[in-house]
């Protein structure tokens, strides 16, 4: 697996829905005119709370009945970006990278509120029918089919993280164009949660002002249509700007408190500038994260001073959140749209209400937009768990230049640790996955080997995942610092979320538990893992229903191929959850295998990185491919085995459907190994299939294909033996 | 009555603040709740203030007075007693 291209990435379409209306350009014009979208909330009753202002999207066109609010916000913005780019509907080669945090939570809350307490579990079913990936499914059904798609969460930097993954798909040839962005609708959970944390300003938020007291929540969606320069030229699509740099990383500091010195955030801004082949003097504007909370803005100002403090003239800085609110998972994407429109227009948008900057040495744009030529700009996003992202955009007129060469080399699997009936590392996993099948019992104490203090607020899934991640790192003889981390989960913390929501519904929004709230966002487990292990590389959660493990591997491989980390932990977890368990038989997987729980981690890295530690990896990764609505003809993974007599096919969920789809492929003739009969079914079982594949290759199978499928999506992971040194 | 209140507070700490590894009886009534003692942090402080209000109908103020009330189980019990009487 190599990055095929070091071409520039063009922006050919933009879409935005915010409290300043539907449409990117009209919204940007109103932003620059100093209009505010902050008004008293009308979507639900928030009278119990001190702060009742919100940047709510008003005057939405009428919404199809089966859409959730977040679906609709996403759909409007995505459609606008596609239409501006003149991307033909259902033209092949389009990917969807989508960030978010709460998906259809608002409608779930409505349902919980409307039903009586007697139907507790019936009310909870929506928590399963609107997992994070539900917005992706909605867009796939209405704007697809897509060549590839992923739902990613890194809390308030989710939208920016999705854009970075989109950049990888273009560079690797996985997609010809990518619809990348984020969407989040307002809901009681986030409204009450931030309020309980004391992070909401009772007045309209004032980022970077000494009088700031917190944030104002908002909602919306933003999308960029990205494609390689060659594709944009071929289609004669106008180039609206360039995505030239990016950086993702974790602070490994605290779940809600940013690391005050701003060291990590500053480092990431410099990395993004370096990746673009630019220097700090080339940056003319920063669209700051600037939430208005005392801690975030102090940290960000410190980071900005570290990066740009040496420049005499200063760089223009503003936060759009005083007008658009904090749109959480959408913020990184909405602000990416605003940043690229700023470059196009030659106008730095205002920081409404910023009159007394706390740090006077920084050159903030005040309440009026400033017209000036802008060459390049940063957009910052920082999320709970210390999950940070920085994007760098350039004006359409930017000159082409030599870009830093991408590191080459193939990817390998260096270690595997699984949690199932017990924690097993390396070869020990093989006995469990290939021996005589037994009924899968539940995993042991999820906190057994963990530090009690540091894992105090972990739920079962996070505890199990942490044990596996720690074991995988040890087996790969890899220190945690600077590795990347991706955790796949289909549903997240359902039982815990329901408990939190039940309090809100029964006792009112003031009853939100502040220490619980940060642990409910889809990226909480990934963030907690990064905090526990001290991981400072990129940390993300992905959600893809029963294919969450495969999506996690693909995403971890992308982080390594992009050079964002030398090694990455790719994992997935689906732990026993009383709500999921009781609802599963009714409408979850069609698999006949008994429902169980489990997950695990593998270490994925460049071969040279493993070699530098003197480690012999388990297997080489030939290809990780996602096939949607039919198998792609030029597939590397599905190409014929080198030697049918020695190759092996590993099957997890969807085995029968896969065999039917393979038709006359020679892979139907090789030996097979099935995973479900040993493990039962849980949404992360694909991680066991991939780990089993890597371990069997290490035991002498020269050529191996792991296949898993759910509905119209098939994942293929092709592994081969490590050549002898 | 004070002893019963202290027990109730310890029970509340263990069940509502995820002190998984502790039993109410393990908690030293004189030890600091935050930092070195019980190891609670700023998120716990917010949650505890809210639970104390819910359970005992007493509002814990912000600032120094609040810090004093949260010094230990003993201090919190005394604060709740005083606030109820006052």
In short:
The complex is a heterodimer of chains A (725) and B (86). By secondary structure, chain A is of the alpha/beta class. Chain A is built from 22 helices and 27 strands.
Overview of the molecule:
The complex is a heterodimer of chains A (725) and B (86). Chain A has 22 helices and 27 strands. With 725 residues, chain A is of the alpha/beta class. In chain A, helix 2 packs across helix 5, helix 13 packs across helix 22 and helix 14 crosses helix 16 (524-533). Chain B is an all-alpha fold and 86 residues long. Chain B has one domain: Non-ribosomal Peptide Synthetase Peptidyl Carrier Protein, Chain A (Orthogonal Bundle), CATH 1.10.1200.10. Helices cover 57% and strands 0% of the residues of chain B. Chain B has helices spanning 2-16, 42-56, 64-69, 73-85. The longest helix of chain B has 15 residues, at 2-16. Chain B starts with a helix and ends with a helix. The chains are: A alpha/beta (725), B mainly alpha (86).
Termini separation of chain B (Å)?
17 Å
Uncertain runs of chain B are none
Please report the first level of CATH classification, the CATH class of the largest domain in chain A: Alpha Beta
- What would the CATH topology of chain B be? Non-ribosomal Peptide Synthetase Peptidyl Carrier Protein, Chain A
The name of the CATH superfamily of chain B reads ACP-like
CA radius of gyration of chain B: 12 Å
Shape of chain A: globular
Approximate helicity band of chain A: 25-40%
Into how many domains do the coordinates of chain B divide?
1
Fraction in helix of chain B: 55-70%
**Second-tier CATH architecture of the largest domain in chain A:** 3-Layer(aba) Sandwich
- Summing up helix and strand content along with how strands pair, one would put the structural category of chain B as mainly alpha
Number of strands of chain A: 27
Structural Rg of chain A: 24 Å
Oligomeric category? heterodimer
Biggest beta sheet summary of chain A? 23 strands, mixed
């Amino acid at each position: 697996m190599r990055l095929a291209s070091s071409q520039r990435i063009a922006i050919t379409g933009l879409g935005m829905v915010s409290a300043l209306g539907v449409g990117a350009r009209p919204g940007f014009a109103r932003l620059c005119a100093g209009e505010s979208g902050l008004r008293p909330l009308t979507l639900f009753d928030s009278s119990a709370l001190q702060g009742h202002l919100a940047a709510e999207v008003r005057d939405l066109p009428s919404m199809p009945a089966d859409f959730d609010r977040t679906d609709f916000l996403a759909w409007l913005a995505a459609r606008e970006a596609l239409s501006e780019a003149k991307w033909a509907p259902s033209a092949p080669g389009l990917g969807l990278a989508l960030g978010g945090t709460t998906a259809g939570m608002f409608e779930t809350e409505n349902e919980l509120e409307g039903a009586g307490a007697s139907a507790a579990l019936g009310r909870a079913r929506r928590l399963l029918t609107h997992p994070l990936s539900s917005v992706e499914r909605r867009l796939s059904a209405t704007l697809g089919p897509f060549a590839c798609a992923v739902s990613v969460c890194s809390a308030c930097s989710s939208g920016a993280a999705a854009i970075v993954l989109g950049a990888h798909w273009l560079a690797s040839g996985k997609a010809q164009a990518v619809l990348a962005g984020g969407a989040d609708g307002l809901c009681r959970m986030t409204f009450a949660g931030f309020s309980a944390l004391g992070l909401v300003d009772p007045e309209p938020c004032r980022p970077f002002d000494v009088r700031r007291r917190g944030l104002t929540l908002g909602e919306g969606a933003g999308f960029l249509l990205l494609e390689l320069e060659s594709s944009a030229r071929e289609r004669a699509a106008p180039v609206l700007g360039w995505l030239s740099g990016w950086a993702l990383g974790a602070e490994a500091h605290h779940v809600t408190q940013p690391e005050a010195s701003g060291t990590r955030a500053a480092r990431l801004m410099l990395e993004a500038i370096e990746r673009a082949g630019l220097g700090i003097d080339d940056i003319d504007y920063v669209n700051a994260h600037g939430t208005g909370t005392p801690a975030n803005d102090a940290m960000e100002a410190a980071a900005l001073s570290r990066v740009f403090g040496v420049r005499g003239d200063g760089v223009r800085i503003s936060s759009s959140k005083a007008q658009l609110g904090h749109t959480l998972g959408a913020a990184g994407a909405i602000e990416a749209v605003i940043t690229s429109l700023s470059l196009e227009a030659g106008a730095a948008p205002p920081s409404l209400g910023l009159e007394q900057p706390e740090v006077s040495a920084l050159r903030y744009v005040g309440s009026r937009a400033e017209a000036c030529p802008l060459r390049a700009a940063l957009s910052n996003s920082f999320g709970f768990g210390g999950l940070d992202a920085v994007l760098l955009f350039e004006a359409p007129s930017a000159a082409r230049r030599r870009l830093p060469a991408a590191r080459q080399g193939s990817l390998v699997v260096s270690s595997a640790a699984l949690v199932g009936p017990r924690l097993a590392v390396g070869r020990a996993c093989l006995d469990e996955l290939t021996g005589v099948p037994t009924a899968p019992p539940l995993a042991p104490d999820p906190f057994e080997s963990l530090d009690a203090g540091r894992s105090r607020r972990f739920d079962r899934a996070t505890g199990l995942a942490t044990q596996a991640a720690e074991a995988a790192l040890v087996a790969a003889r890899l220190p945690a610092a600077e590795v990347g981390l991706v955790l796949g989960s289909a549903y997240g913390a359902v039982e815990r979320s329901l408990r939190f929501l039940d309090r809100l519904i029964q006792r009112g929004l003031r009853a939100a538990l502040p220490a619980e709230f940060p642990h409910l966002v889809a990226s909480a487990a990934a963030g907690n893992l990064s905090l526990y292990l001290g991981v400072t590389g990129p940390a993300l959660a992905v959600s893809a229903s029963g294919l969450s493990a495969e999506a996690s591997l693909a995403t971890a491989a992308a982080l390594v191929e992009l050079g964002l980390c030398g090694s990455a932990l790719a994992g997935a977890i689906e732990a026993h959850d009383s709500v999921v368990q009781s609802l599963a038989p009714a409408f979850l997987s069609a698999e006949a295998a008994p429902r169980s729980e489990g997950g695990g981690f593998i270490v994925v890295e460049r071969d040279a990185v493993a070699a530098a530690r003197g480690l012999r990896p388990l297997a080489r990764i030939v290809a990780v491919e996602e096939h949607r609505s039919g198998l792609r003809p030029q597939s590397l993974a599905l190409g014929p085995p080198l030697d049918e007599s020695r190759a092996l096919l590993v099957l997890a969920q969807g085995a029968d459907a896969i065999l039917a789809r393979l038709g006359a492929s020679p892979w139907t003739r090789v030996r097979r190994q099935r995973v479900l009969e040993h493990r039962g079914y849980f949404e992360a079982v694909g991680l066991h299939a991939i780990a089993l594949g890597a371990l069997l290759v290490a035991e002498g199978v020269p050529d191996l294909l792991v296949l898993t499928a759910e509905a119209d999506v098939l994942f293929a992971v092709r592994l081969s033996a490590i050549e002898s040194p | 009555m004070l002893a019963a209140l202290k027990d109730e507070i310890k029970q509340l700490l263990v069940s509502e603040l995820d002190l998984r590894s502790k039993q109410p009886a393990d908690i030293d009534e004189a030890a600091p709740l935050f930092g070195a003692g019980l190891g609670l942090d700023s998120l716990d402080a917010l949650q505890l203030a809210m639970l104390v209000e819910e359970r005992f109908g007493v509002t814990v103020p912000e600032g120094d007075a609040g810090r004093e009330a949260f010094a230990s189980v003993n201090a919190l019990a005394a604060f709740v007693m005083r606030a109820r009487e006052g």
